[in-house]
Amino acid sequence: MRLITLDRCQTGMKLGKPIYNENEKVLLAKGTELTDSLIKRLMLLNIYTVYIDDELSEGIEIVESIPKEIHLEAVSVITECLDTIAGPNLDASNIQGMIKTERAIRSFKKIFKDILSYLTENRTALNLLATTKAHSNHVYTHSLNVAIYSCQLAIENGLPLKKIEDIGMGAMLHDVGKMFISPEVLNKAGALTKDEYEYVKSHSELGFDLLRKIHEIPLTVAHCALQHHERVDGGGYPRGLREDQIHSYAKILSVADVFDAVTSHRVYRRALLPHKGIELLYSGNGTQFESKQIQLFKDCIAIYPEGLTVKLNNGTTGIVSKYNFNAVGRPIIRMIKDEEGNEIKPFEIDLSSVENLTLEIIEADELLF
Ligand SMILES: [Fe+2]
Fold first, then answer.
1. How far apart are the CA of 340 and the centre of ligand 1, in A?
2. Which is it for strands 26-28 and 19-20: parallel, antiparallel or unpaired?
3. How far is the CA of 106 from the centre of ligand 1 (A)?
4. What is the mean pLDDT of residues 52-67?
5. Closest Cα to residue 319, out of 59, 44, 35?
6. What predicted TM-score, i.e. pTM, was given to this entire model?
7. Contact predicate 329/361, CB 8 Å
C-alpha cells in the first residue's frame, strides 16, 4: 500500500484503505476501484491523498496509531462532551444540564483511559496520516489528535499517570472555547481581518471561563485551555506569559496543537508532511516551544510514515516500507527507481543499517503541496 495524491490517481487503481466522510462513516470501502467520476467526487470533498494497493507497494502495511473502534468512539464522546458543556444554560440551577455534563465527563474520562492504555501497551511511532477522510468539523478531530500526541509526549516526559490523565483531558478540551466562535470566521478560506483574529483568539479565555466553573474538571485542565497559545518567549496570548510562568501541561499541549494543525488540511491551506511539520516546530525551538518538548516529540511520531514516496541523496526513489523506531530518520525503503528515474526491480534497503551512512532521505514526495 502507498500514499499518492489524488491528482496522480488513475482509473482502475484500487483503494488500499477506506475513505471516511465527515461523520466517520465509510464513504468508499477498501478495494474500491477508482473511476474518473469517483476521483472528481473525492476532489470536491477536498481529499488530496489516498492509499492505493498496487504491485509496487504490495506487502507494505500502514498501521493505525489507535484502533478504529477506539477512534470512532472517542470522536463521538468528544463531540457529545463539547456540545454538552458548551451548550446553553449550563449553571448550578440547571439540574438536567449538570447531570448531562457529569455523564459526558465520565464517558470522556473512560475513553481517554482506553487511549492511554492502548498507547502505553503498543509503543509505536504515531502516524495520524493513516486515515483518509473528508473535511470534518475539525474542532472534534483536532481535539482527539492533540490528545493522542500530548498523551504520548507526556509518557515520553516520564510523567505519572495522574498527570498524563489531566494532560489528556486538557488536550481534549483545550479548544472548547471555539464552540463560541462563529463557524464562518473559524473556517474562513481567506486571511482574517485584525478584528476577526482578535475574536478567534478569545477562544482560550472563553474556554477557561467555561471549564473553571465545572466542578468535575480540575483547575489545571482549565489552564490548558487558557494557556495553550502562550509561547516561551512571551510572544503568545492571551497573557504573554514566559518560560516558567507557563504551566508545564500547556508547554506539552502547544507542541502537539501546532503539529496537528500544520499537518492537517484546512480550507485555507493544504497539510504539511510530518517531516516538514517537525521542521516548523524546530523553527520555534526555544522561542515558541520548549526545546526539550520538541526533542521528545520528534521521537513520538513517524517522521517518514510507511507508504510515503521518498528521494535519496544519490538520486534514487523508494517507498517507505517500515518505520525504524530507533532511527526515526532512517526507515526501511523499498527502492523503485534508479538515479535516472528508470523503474527497477524493487528491492529493500534498511537505512538504519547500511554501511554508507551518507545515504539519506533528501525529499519526501510533494504529496500535500
Ligand atoms: Fe486553540
1. 46
2. antiparallel
3. 24
4. 90
5. 59
6. 0.90
7. yes
